[in-house]
Amino acid sequence: MTGKGLAKADGKPRLRPVMFVGTCSDAGKSILSTAFCRIFRQDGYRPAPFKAQNMSLNSFSTPDGGEIGRAQAVQAEACGIMPHTDMNPVLLKPSTDQTSQVVLNGKPVGNMSAREYFRSGNKAQLFTEAVNAFRRLDASYNPVVLEGAGSISELNLRDRDITNMRMAREVDAVVYLVADIDRGGVFGSVYGSVMLLPEEERRLLKGVIVNKFRGDVSLFDEGREMLRQLTGIPVVGVIPYFKDIHIEEEDSVALETKAVSAGSGKINVAVVRLRRMSNFTDFDALERDGRFHVYYTDEREEIAKADVIVLPGTKSTIADLQVLREEGIAEAIVQAYGEGKKVIGICGGYQMLGQRVLDPDRVEGSLTEAEGLGLLPLVSVMQGEKVVCQSRFRYKDYDELCEGYQIHMGRTFPADGAETGAPLVMLDGGETEGFRLNEDCWGTYMHGILDNPVVLNDLAKDFGVSAVTDFHYRDFKQRQYDLLADKVREAVDMDYVYSTLCE
User: Fold this and answer.
1) Are 338 and 377 in contact (CB under 8 A)?
2) Are 247 and 480 in contact (CB under 8 A)?
3) Among 19, 50, 101, 362, fewest CB within 10 Å belongs to which?
4) For 43-62, what is each residue's pLDDT tens digit?
């Protein structure tokens, strides 16, 4: 369906693409893109998210078996549509401080160092792929909501950028600049970001949105006018700082604000903080369930205080496993299990719980083997072909149908002479997945398994708290998108925004 055909079908005018860029990283581009995705949906449009290139260890599987950044999956959910690889055609997943796996159109195409990626001649091809992905989205959705990356004024990266103003120019997007006032220096960051742009790009900027303002926003009225006079661009909104709306985040910066120690009066769940931890959104539902206190730690003393210990996913299983051993964390987990604590492994953490992890083809890095924690009688082997899929399953012996997704490059097998256990889940197609040693120790490749109420209820039943909750995380997320949209509507001149999109 063409864009014009769609506009006629839904009775809405065809809107120009809109892009949210930032003065810096973590300015709020993702959250505002999510808010506008929801606002456009509420207003009767059919929006879709897009980010040409993303760098994140928090990813998500699309229904057709592709992989995209978690932020675009969240934004698709806010739009009320299924995620698609066109929404994030280039995804970089760091595996070391200098190397990333490159995922193109949902499929891994190899590992590259930062120098290889930014200096090689492949950026022209990647930009072409990104533009093609955008065009496909633009033919079916109205409008496409683009998200930039980092700062728009990194002069040393300008000729290699495929995400920010180069993409905006290519698709003739209306651009809004997001500035984080909570960091300080908002006048310098906005003025510098605008003035460092060439004139042809500056003309695309239609407004500034000041984000994370603490206190009475009317106190910034003078500041709004000063910024307009300095840059010639109006401040179209001042978003108040808020902590009462919870949207899943993909940036590891979010971990800095989470609890790091055990609490009292709840079931303490220690998520082991790994160097290359991935998909930490696996624990968002657990954090919102009032029966649990979730904290993230790499301290042996805090692990010892936990009732439940979770080894999460990682992009570098063997390297992170070595760190756990060197710092005594592996020993602390094994000791805690021996003292009756529950131990769970998800994805890379599932591999760690086994006897050995092998990487004969050096898929992850230079190390080819590591000894696991030995709690599960399993051996994992890294392989070049990545498993990416969404899954429906039944957990243990329960009848409820659950949902999750898998993203991993390893396969896990019973060790020679291993004691028997039971599969953790039965997939909708009849296959089994995961391993359950007993009620206190299990592992799975299933991301999102803890989003399912039956799993949380099962986890809580042995701790003397209510074993049943009516909390449904998926319903909770939908309410949060609406709350976010309401907050942004109150703070932004939406009439002005729509006027720029209809030009």
Assistant:
1) no
2) yes
3) 362
4) 999 999 999 999 888 899 99
